[in-house]
Every structure is written in structure tokens, then in C-alpha cells.
């Protein structure tokens, strides 16, 4: 596993802002505008909640994958792909 280059979690959602546990460490701000995303209105706070959960979701996927051992199936392939995308190791 390569060295992580992202700010360690937990991340905290505050409205449309995501920050690290350290109060002055800003991670991201979700664009909060009045136009819809595609054909449906965006819930920018929901997007921010999902982003804030990213470190815990990655940790869960990695731990779950370790528990699966060498059992390669659809779910382990999905977990590997998600982990690769999150860590920048996907092609």
C-alpha cells in the first residue's frame, strides 16, 4: 500500500464545508448554488456529508477486504476498485 497523501480522518461536515478534526484544516467546500444537478435539485449538504464520510468508508472497505482473504468475487472486485479510486491507484 502506498503512502496516503490525503488529510487523515475523521472529517467533519459543517453545512457545505468539510474540514478535518483540527478546526483550521479545511478539506473542501461543496458548491452551493441554486441550479439543479442534471434533472434533479442538488442537496449540497448531502453531498458534503458523503464527502465527510470518505475516510471512514475507505477504512471500512480496506478492513472488509482484509477479512475476505483470497476470496475473489464481485464484491471484493468492487471493494478493490473503490479503494484504488480513493487512493489514486486506479488506471
Description:
It is a single chain. It contains 3 helices and 3 strands. It has 91 residues and is an alpha+beta fold. It has 2 domains: 8-52, no CATH class; 54-86. It has a 3-stranded antiparallel beta sheet, with helices on one face. Strand 2 (17-20) and strand 3 (26-29) form a beta hairpin. The longest helix is centred in the C-terminal third of the chain and has 15 residues, at 54-68. The radius of gyration is 16 Å and the shape is globular. The two termini are 16 Å apart. The mean pLDDT is 85.
Brief summary:
The chain is an alpha+beta fold and 91 residues long. The chain has helices spanning 44-52, 54-68, 74-87, and strands at 11-14, 17-20, 26-29.
N- to C-terminal separation? 16 Å
Beta-sheet strand percentage?
Answer: 5-15%
Q: Main sheet?
A: 3 strands, antiparallel
**Overall mean pLDDT score?**
85
What's the Cα radius of gyration? 16 Å
Order of helices and strands: EEEHHH
* Strand order within the widest beta sheet: 1-2-3
Number of separate strands: 3
Structural class: alpha+beta
Oligomeric state of the chains in view: single chain
Helix content: 40-55%
Structural domain count: 2
- Identify low-pLDDT runs: none
Keywords:
three-stranded antiparallel beta sheet, 42% helix, alpha+beta, 2 domains, 3 helices, 91 residues
